[in-house]
Amino acid sequence: MDFIDQIRFSSSGIGDIVNAYTFLLTRQRLRCKQALRPAPLSRFDFEHGVVLDYHKVNIMKAKDSLKVDLTPVIAAFLLSLSTSGLAADAPPQEALALQLPAPTLKGTPEDLPKGPNIEPLSDKPRPPFLAPRGVTNVALGKPVISSVPPFSGELRQITDGKKEAFDYDAVEFKKGTQWVQVDLGDTYSIYAIAVWHDHRYIQVMHDVIVQVSDDPEFKKNVQTLFNNDADNSSGLSAGADREYFETNQGKIIDAKGVKARYVRGYTRGGTSSALNCWQEIEVYALPVK
Question: Cα–Cα distance between 159 and 168 in angstroms, integer?
Fold first, then answer.
């Protein structure tokens, strides 16, 4: 194993990279000094006038020796960044294991909405969503409040873990922009929020906005994680996210480890009905250290 390989596989990481750089630089300086030191000249050199050429050649060699190829060191340094102590604090990740409900039995409508702000409907499984190992659904069984009382179903159903495409698993609210809010009971590091609004029908829900906060009234420290209200019709600022079709796969929102206690979700009806509907909110998180 050569010097650079020893560095690459060393457990001390960055310190060894610095040592490698110092080693190579010192070695090249020594070579430069040796190259600049003139060798003993013979009578032949003086008699044939080659002294100037001799020194010129040696100086050129010395300059060339200063051209240190640091490519191996840089490569080893970059490798160490991804495998050494700088990345050691990142928790190991794994695919988020969602318990998906069965697809709706009503089929796919022929007149699906289309447009540049709508994600195309896909019949393929969603790519795995990576989250830190050990995250759990901390919203399960937690209390729920809403902007208006539901006229069908009960608020507790939104965090009961049941999200099948049946009427008795749907909680419905009147038209207009309405919200539901989950109190997680404590502050968590949130990595993913999965929502199912109403996958009884293949439809698009409007003005889907998901926010988190440590304030139950959402008047301060509010962070918006998802917003597809492109025209600001709900008055919470225009969003840049795209609308999507409701399916049994739900929608996973990347929360990127944000710390919060309260989760609030907004909707403003959908393409199948002007009414608002929620089936389940799941919040995958870890306790704050």
Answer: 14
Report how far residue 272's alpha carbon sits from residue 252's, in angstroms, rounded to the nearest whole number. Answer: 22
What confidence tens digit (pLDDT) does each residue in 41-81 have? Answer: 454 444 444 444 444 444 444 444 444 454 544 444 444 44
Residue the block writes with tokens 């206690």: 261
Q: Is the separation of the CB atoms in 98 and 127 below 8 Å?
A: no
Tell me the domain boundaries of the chain. Answer: 3-87, 132-287
| Contact between residue 239 and residue 230 where contact means Cβ atoms under 8 Å apart | yes
Question: Tell me, what DSSP letter sits at residue 38?
Answer: P
CATH topology of domain 132-287: Jelly Rolls (2.60.120)
Q: Are 278 and 180 within 8 A, CB to CB?
A: yes
Instruction: For the chain, give the percent of residues with pLDDT over 90.
Output: 65
Q: Minimal CA–CA distance to 208: which of 239, 166, 162?
A: 239
Q: Round to whole Å and give the CA distance between 225 and 178.
A: 17
The pLDDT assigned to 44 comes to 44
Average pLDDT, the chain: 82
pTM over the 0.85 mark:
no
